Each structure stands twice: as C-alpha cells, then as structure tokens.
Amino acid sequence: MFVKAFAAAFSLCLAACTAVPLSEPESAGPLAEPSPPAVVKGHEMQMAFLGACERWDEWAKPAPPFQLMGNSWYVGTCGISSVLITGEDGHILIDSGVPEAAPLVLANIAALGFDAKDIRYILMSHEHFDHVGAHAALKEATGAQIVASQKAKPVLETGVIAADDPQADAGHPDMTPVKVDLVVEDGEVLSLGQLQVTAHATPGHSPGALSWTWWSCSLPSEPPVCNRFAYIDSLSAVSADDYRFTDHPEMVRAFRTSIDKVRLLQCDYLVTPHPSAGSMLDLMSGEYGLFLHKGCGFYGERLSQRLDERLAKETAK
Ligand SMILES: [Zn+2]
Which residues form the signal peptide (predicted)? Predict the structure, then answer.
C-alpha cells in the first residue's frame, strides 16, 4: 500500500511533467532534509564495482553487480548499464547491453540471489546494439516480454538500425531480431504487482528512445524509505560522420523537447545507459554516494549545453 501510494503520486506527477514545471511532489522523509544516506547494504558492492571498473569503460567488460538503492540493482557491465527492479510478483529489467553481455547480466542477477526467470518485462533505453543487443538472448533465457516504443519496434524485430537514425550510416552491426510483445506510449505506466514504471518518449539520440522513472523502496530489512529513480536515455548528439543535425530540424526539435522533459523530471537517483554519462562512478565515491541531494536537474542542463555545442560546431563548418 505504502509503495503503491508513492508510485501513484510519482506517476501522476510525471504525466504532467511535459506541460508545466512541477512543484516538489509529496515524497519520503529524506527529501525534505537531505542528508547522506545511511550506509546501505550495497555499499561494499559499490566499492567492488569502483575497484573493477573505469570511467567510460569497455562495453563488454564484466562488472560486479550492486544495489543502487532498495529494490533497484545495477546488473550491467562496466561500460553499459542494465538495471533490475525487483518485486514480489516478478522483476523488470531495463536494457540488456551488447550481445556478449547476456551471460554477464544473467550471472549478475544470479549473484544477487534473484532468478532471471522471474523477470517479466525487458525494457529499453534506445534501439542501438550496445543497449538492446542482448535482448534476444535474454528473452530466450528468461521468457520475459520485450517492451519497446513504436519507433523502436521494427529495429528490434529486424535487428537493423532505422534509416532515419542519426547513426544509420555509422556501421552498427545487425542484432539478433527479437519480437516486441508490448509497445508503450509516452507517459504510459507499466505495472507489475506493486512495481510501477513510467515510460517517457525522449527521441534525439535515436528516434525511438525512451527514458523511465519509478519509485524504488527499501528492502524489508532496511529502514523504510522510497526514492525517485530516473533512467534517462543517452540524449547525446552522436551521428554518422556525414550526418548534420542542422539538416534535420525535426530531429533538433525532438531533441530539445526531450531535453526539456528531462529538465522537469525530479529524481533522487539517476542512472544513464552509459554509466559515466550520469557521472555514476564519481558520485559513488562522493559524500552522498548515488543519492542526488540536489536532485537531477543538472543532467538536463548538461545535455542542453552539449547539444548547443554540437549545433554550433556544425554551423561554424
Ligand atoms: Zn546509442
């Protein structure tokens, strides 16, 4: 009940996020008076990750899994994120990683004591091989349903990058095709028992990109608290060499709308498909750990600045 109430409040908040700036939603205790979180069970696991991985590390390099907070877990590689959200009625996995990551992600889930066969949904950030390349293998291993945006669906089902993707001519390898079981719209809430995860369409880096938000709550053995999580897609203006964003005003508009959406999201924990894009390793070694005591507004500003820089560079050429 407790979890449900927070999840519902957060979902409502996010439904409005695209239109108007939000006031601070009602939330759990630590948001009013930010303070460093109590040493969580996962602290040692995070230190192990820091010991094994570098910033902007290799995509297929094995990493030890760790607890992000409560029922949210990092199960990806050193260079590519996969997040497991666990619940009594099954689990949700966001992103699978490069094809070689499939056995690593499965091993990480097992190392945390979870059964990968309890994963009911596999979600995506964006339809590039480094984030959804292991979807087919993980679907086969878990029996989970694949969840994607309408735009990403044909890419996942053919394994071929879309012709209108800025990286269409960047030499991406084809992926093993995988059937999409469920298409989500912008603002749609995916429910699994007490878990509720909200989809946000954030095109820009790719046409079908999605970001996700949810409340993560402490485990029964931990002090009771729920925090707002955001898994925000890459939103970096990366492209094939001959692609100019300035030649595609519709893409630039989509990009800016997505970044504006991200600016309005309020979160206490931020995870990005490439961990270092959201400064994950730097935060881990800081005073507050991954808890963003000043919120995640900085990330939207950073994205906006980088897009401006890219467009200015194109214009100057
Ligand atoms: Zn990408």
Answer: 1-19
